[in-house]
Design goal:
five-stranded antiparallel β-sheet, about 160 residues, Alpha-Beta Plaits, about 20% strand, alpha+beta, large ribosomal subunit rRNA binding, single chain, 5 strands
Length: about 160
């Protein structure tokens, strides 16, 4: 049994995490063993994402009036992954979920100051990174210019 002071300290830690993060993901980690959790924490830390395991009652208290909407259903053992980057925490949880089938389940989260459900969090998680999007734009811009250069080169060959 936790002391009241310890509970209040945990709630303050969760409130601070919620306040300082741009996005937060609720994760059900039922059935995860210690070695998988160690791997998860290391991968998240490398990407600038923090991870906290919490009691659901304390998490609900910390979430009161912190975002618009209704808190998603939090079932099983719950942890939160959060970061200062909008997309990093959902993307990294999703990537770990893909490589370690059946261990993690995204329950929902907070995105842009609103509670969102599992489906919306999965959509956010599948958005490509900034670097990937920039490379796609560069490829799209390069293709027509490259075709024009080939056409001009062929015209020059015919005229010569």
């Amino acid at each position: 049994m936790l002391l009241k002071s310890k509970k209040e300290e945990m709630i303050k830690g969760l409130e601070k995490a919620i306040k300082e993060s741009e996005s937060l993901v609720f994760v059900n980690f039922h059935g995860m063993n210690v070695s998988d959790e160690t791997i998860l924490r290391r991968e998240l830390r490398n990407q600038g994402v923090d991870y906290k395991v919490s009691r659901k009652t304390l998490l609900r208290r910390a979430l009161l009036k912190k975002a618009e909407g209704e808190v998603p259903e939090l079932s099983g053992e719950v942890a939160v992954a959060y970061s200062k980057d909008n997309i990093a925490s959902p993307r990294e949880i999703y990537n770990f979920q893909k490589t370690h089938k059946g261990i993690l389940d995204i329950l929902g989260g907070i995105f842009e100051g609103k509670f969102v459900g599992k489906e919306k969090m999965m959509e956010i998680a599948t958005i490509p990174s900034r670097e990937v999007l920039l490379s796609k734009i560069a490829f799209l811009l390069k293709s027509p210019i490259q075709r024009l250069a080939v056409a001009v080169n062929e015209v020059a060959k015919i005229k010569s």
